[in-house]
Amino acid sequence: MTITIIGTGLIGGSMALALKEKGFADKIIGVDDNIMHQRKALELYLVDEVLSWEDALPLSDLVILAVPVNIAVKLLPLILDLTDKQVLMDVGSTKEELLNVIAYHTNRRRFVGTHPMWGTENSGPASVVRGAFVNRATVICNKEKSDIDAINMVEKVYRALGMRIVYMDAKDHDVHVAYVSHISHIISFALANTVLEKEREEDTIFELASGGFESTVRLAKSDPLMWLHIFIQNRENILDVLNEHISQLRKFKVSLEKGNYVYLQELIENANGIRRILK
Amino acid sequence: MTITIIGTGLIGGSMALALKEKGFADKIIGVDDNIMHQRKALELYLVDEVLSWEDALPLSDLVILAVPVNIAVKLLPLILDLTDKQVLMDVGSTKEELLNVIAYHTNRRRFVGTHPMWGTENSGPASVVRGAFVNRATVICNKEKSDIDAINMVEKVYRALGMRIVYMDAKDHDVHVAYVSHISHIISFALANTVLEKEREEDTIFELASGGFESTVRLAKSDPLMWLHIFIQNRENILDVLNEHISQLRKFKVSLEKGNYVYLQELIENANGIRRILK
User: Fold this and answer.
1) Residue B213: which pLDDT band, with cuts at 50, 70 and 90?
2) What whole-number distance in Å separates Cα of residue A73 and Cα of residue A77?
3) How many contacts (CB atoms, under 8 Å) link A and B?
């Protein structure tokens, strides 16, 4: 099978690597606007050749759209215009806007909206990870809007990657990821700013940065433009979660301020409940 | 050399393991109120025998106090009362209150206040980590208040553990750790509460928890009472940082609410600056 991957970055590149190694793809065509990424993807044997998406589409059985979400909403309708028997899928962090954009497109049923729940703070083909995706969840959204053969192929892709498939409505997906992914990034960006603000006064602070700090602030290294557009597309849900999170933080603040340590203990013990859910 | 470790949990136990394996200690005596911890520490060969601290002290060259910070402030003066030539050190997350408590003690100079910047969300002797501490920073506070032989011995301990020693005033230490450790824990506890609040409505949310979420929320699994007392002892500094962090989060909220995406992008790009400091 020939697979075209549009966007040879962390997700597209790691997927290319895995699908080739699993023998799922006979040939992978890479599409990327960034010439440095094109070269790197070829050099790392992530892709067999680089073409424009217009040239790659007719040669492909499957096209994986792995570009930032603001680019996906512009590009997907154009690709669908030229789609015939190919299956198309995306891997973006937001789903509702993208699915709305193509809701009435003639070739809508050739497309499957998905979101594999894996990533790192790094980007670009140089940051690909071997064995990415394994044992993680992936979401397929609004299954009923896609052709059965398209869904079947996408399911095979994710099974080849070793992922657990969850089916979900795009609207629900966007609410959930606001909680389990997007808010973590906002928190991490804000924590980095909190500490960087202080760092103007004090240099040694970073001498001390321990594992706890590093794991909380790691996500603040993530690609700014990619995340900017995720936040914009999922604005309403993120605002809900952010308001809730600020109100949770204020409970810690008030209990500390007032010396209400019984309540502070309750807050911490309640948070410990996350152990029930995340092992 | 005979070393007594009071508190055979994550820090004390991991230290015992390393000091024995490095040949730094000939014998390690464990002290622990918790009988299960005593048994586990013996079973895992972290300690050679278990005694009360009163019995262990006269047999020891070095005593490492590795108990929660609220217990340390009560126990340290009692130990110092009976201290003769032994060297005492602690490993707690807060330093100012502890050093104030013993400021005028006759044997003050036998004690060295320290804080190795390493930990995990787990506690107890069963959670010890082989190779902990290596390449991390450790703080020695108010060096000038301790005897030179005591400082020398503590420096040797940390060099044996492979740590980088930073010297600092206790007051400065407590400000710094509020930024690089304590705030990360509060954020993580608050994030856990944010998500657990939502989970009442939705179960599938945790199906999706990805690496980013797990790393941000990991610290919320930490021992509640241990952290409660760290927060209480470092209350003023933590409140400063928490206020700054909430105000940084509000910048994200306001820019999203108002659709001021130029500013939102600036906030994210500024946060990215953490890459300069944490590789």
Assistant:
1) confident
2) 7
3) 293
pLDDT at position A215 is: 82
A79 with A66: CB under 8 angstroms? Answer: no
Burial (0-12, 13-18, 19+ Cβ within 10 Å), B204: middle
Domain boundaries, chain B: 2-169, 173-277
Q: Which of B175, B176, B195, B205 to mutate to test the interface with A (most CBs of A within 10 A)?
A: B195
Q: Do B193 and A248 touch (CB under 8 A)?
A: yes
How does pLDDT run across B41-54, given as a tens digit for each residue? 999 999 999 999 99
Q: Answer with the residue of higher pLDDT: A97 or A208.
A: A97
Superfamily assignment of B2-169 in CATH? NAD(P)-binding Rossmann-like Domain (3.40.50.720)
Sequence letter at residue B210: S
CATH code linked to domain B173-277: 1.10.3660.10
Cβ of B239 and A257 within 8 Å?
yes
The shortest C-alpha distance from B41 to chain A (Å) reads 24
- As for the ipTM of the complex, it is 0.93
CATH topology of domain A2-168: Rossmann fold (3.40.50)
Element (H, E) at A256: helix A235-257
The CA-based angle B131-B136-B139, given to 5 degrees, is: 125
The DSSP element (H or E) to which B6 belongs, if any, is strand B2-6
